[in-house]
Design brief:
Mean pLDDT: 89
Structural class: alpha+beta
CATH architecture of the largest domain: 4-Layer Sandwich
Oligomer: single chain
CATH topology of the largest domain: L-amino peptidase D-ALA esterase/amidase
Strand content: 25-35%
CATH class of the largest domain: Alpha Beta
Length: 412
Amino acid sequence: MRHHMKICFSVILFGVSAALYTAETPIESLPESLRVNAKIIENERDGLWEKSLVVTFPETRKTLSTTEGFGHARAAINHAAHPFLWEQVSKTFLGKDGNGGKRYIAHIHEQIARALKLDRSTLATMGTAADMDNLAVVTRKYGPFVVTALVTAGAKTNAIRTGVDEGTHIETPHGTINILLLTNARLTEGAMARAIVTLTEAKTAALEDLKVPSSYTKTAQATGTGTDSVIVVSGVSGPEVSYTGGHSRIGELIGKAAYHAVIEALGKQNGFLLPGAPPFVTPNRLREQEVVAAAEQWLTVVDAGDAPSILEAWGAASALLHQTEDRKVWSDALESAYSGLGKNTARKMSRNLHTRALPGLPVDEYMLVEFESHFENQSNIIETITCRKDGDGVWRVLRYSLKRQDENGKTT
């Protein structure tokens, strides 16, 4: 079934401006037998994106959500917001008690329900900071059964090994694996609960095959992230199913769809790949490659650490830097930061983040790139470069910072 509706919503936040509706993109790859309508709704708030996966049903469906538990839903929602936006709303939305993120996403879900003309209680929901542009949609079929997994995933900063890592409260979903499972099969409540076990096993198998490490115990293999969520949606037209474990045919389909969707989503979002697999070619990945190359080239100039090389680095930097900073003050600060480090011996990009909004800067195209670096006289250095896309379309360095890490990974 294919029908289209336009959803436009705006949220007024305390300390954060209202969102600007920008676009909606239908997801056309879902099998007709699932009888759903799916699209991604996009907004921008102060240069920071919000993107919601909205899956609606023509009738009420049985759902099991790790947020709301068992329910009867007319829609399933996976709301994604820029990591910087999560940080903002956690501090500013309806008070400063640290629970702003929860109130923000609850308000977003209420706005979506209102736009859909549905009661909030008929939504199954979850949230993430992973970019919805990296959504993976994988379908598996066998005989009368159809299963589709829609997955967003990030595991760079919040991956854990359950049973090993220490548990601490995390308000904002810095890295999250969210799985939305759709099927035509009519699942009993027991089958829906067992499906979460099968989905979790598939997710952990994907993390293991990708060799994703724990973010907290670097030598340990990750089993998930601290904020993973699942929504299971029962079908209405297929056979009735009471068991979804791995020995059943539908359990096999659930496991394979989820496994491959997690592999794809983590490949798109974080660049985690199976051995020998080619990288995913996405607009985000191509931009990342271009910016990282520009940052690394600039760093090779700076690495000499002397006055001539620093002067050359200034000349190669963004035009905005030249307009906003004094050359001598900037050069002296950079030369001082490099003092005593010695020659760079190793440098590895650890993470990157695209944004259109940074404190003290105009709304524009920026990319933050972080490197884990080692020098002759100092190991465990974190180098952070902010690149800007200048008016000529070329990415150039705008900001640079260098911080030392102690044995516990804390920066100084």
